[in-house]
Amino acid sequence: MTTQKKGGQMPATTPQSDNRNLPAVRLAVPEAALREVGLDMSAWKVLTETIFPSAKTPEGVLMAVRYCQARGLDIMRRPVHVVPMWSAKLQRNVETVWPGISEVQTTAARTGQWAGMEPPVFGPEKTKTFKGRVKVNDQWTDAEATVTYSEWCQVTVYRVVKDTRCPFTETVFWEETYSRAGGAKSELPTDMWIKRPKGQLVKCAKAASLRAAFPEEADYTAEEMEGKTLESGNGPIREAVVIDVEASRSEKQSEAVDTQTQPPVSEEEMAKGAVIDNEVEELVAKLVTRTVRAGAWTAADEYARAHFTGEHLKYAKRELALAKSQAEKAKVAA
Fold first, then answer.
1. Element housing 198 (H / E)
2. Is the separation of the CB atoms in 241 and 97 below 8 Å?
3. 84 vs 248: CA distance, rounded Å
4. Using CA atoms, how far apart are residues 130 and 149, in angstroms rounded to an integer?
5. Which one-letter DSSP state was computed for residue 119?
6. What is the dihedral of CA 39, 44, 46, 48, to 10 degrees?
7. Terminus of the chain with fewer CB atoms < 10 Å: N or C?
8. What are the backbone angles phi and psi of residue 260, rounded to the nearest 5°?
């Protein structure tokens, strides 16, 4: 693997070395992608095998790395999680990246206005048997689980507002909040909600109260999103970083030429493409603007693969290729 020499200069590499996949790691990734985020093979091995052992795609781990870098967080402390969610559109699981409850609490504390949190208050306990289908060894299997849980949990968070300690109280209900194994059509809880029905509910109640107290800082958490159904345009989920688990590898194989090497696409060729809705056009336009400003074309390509599939992915890649071509021409002209 290429190492950096003293003085900050990187030794010359051949095109073949840029395309090599790192050996002996659970999730292989091109060396160029690791260099872009400042990682080496040893760090990548720790991330994929220890920090995110359940992640199914390298894109999921890379997006978690970029989230932490953007917010100045130590990824080795696992402030974010790669979370599986059910895609109603794709009828399969996709990976998303969300902060953990500890990260949301840390963000609130850094404002200097967090003034404490009351112990959780629980509602009456209930025992219920849940049934559903889960995937075992790639086969759908009928299963059931009996869980005893608190019907609701209430948490109060305090924030100092104009020198006054103000309470923000939220109540969450177990049956509305728990994560489901097997998608929306299954009522079976995930393993964690079966093993820790009260602990998981407390985390979600804390997150809801922190969002009420710090709406400009707090986000939805991994504990709340795991096992949920991904619905386009439905609240905060549309803002998630989404990686299509099953399509990721097949798309990479079928599109051997990436954004960096694609020839410029003419306006006429672009017009022949499928009709793209306004929401996707807006998202792609924002991506292109950020990419042109930062010059991070490889990162943009990974971002597009993470957010789009099918015709929407092709459209995003065409827009990026065209923008890169125009940027290079402008650079030469200058």
1. helix 197-213
2. yes
3. 14
4. 12
5. P
6. 140
7. C
8. -70, -25
Using the Cα atoms of residue 21, residue 23, residue 28 and residue 30 in order, give the sign of their dihedral: negative
Contacts of 333 (CB under 8 A, 6+ apart): none
- Mean pLDDT per block of 10 residues along the chain (334 residues) reads 43 44 73 88 92 89 87 88 77 81 88 94 96 78 92 96 94 91 77 93 94 84 78 43 48 43 44 58 81 71 69 85 86 77
Give me the DSSP letters along 85-98.
EEETTTTEEEEEEE
In the block, tokens 């689980």 appear at 145
pTM of the model: 0.60
DSSP E strands: which ranges in the chain?
80-87, 92-99, 114-117, 121-122, 125-136, 139-150, 152-161, 164-173, 229-230, 241-244
Distance between CA 146 and CA 196 in Å, rounded?
13
Write the single-letter amino acid at 1.
M
Q: Hunting for tokens 């017009």 — which residue is that? A: 271
Q: Which two tokens stand for residue 322?
A: 């065209």
Cβ(331)–Cβ(302) under 8 Å?
Answer: no
* Contact yes or no for 65/241 (Cβ under 8 A): no
**Contact by Cβ (8 Å): 297, 324:** yes
Task: Determine the Cα–Cα distance for residues 237 and 2; give it in Å rounded to an integer.
Answer: 39
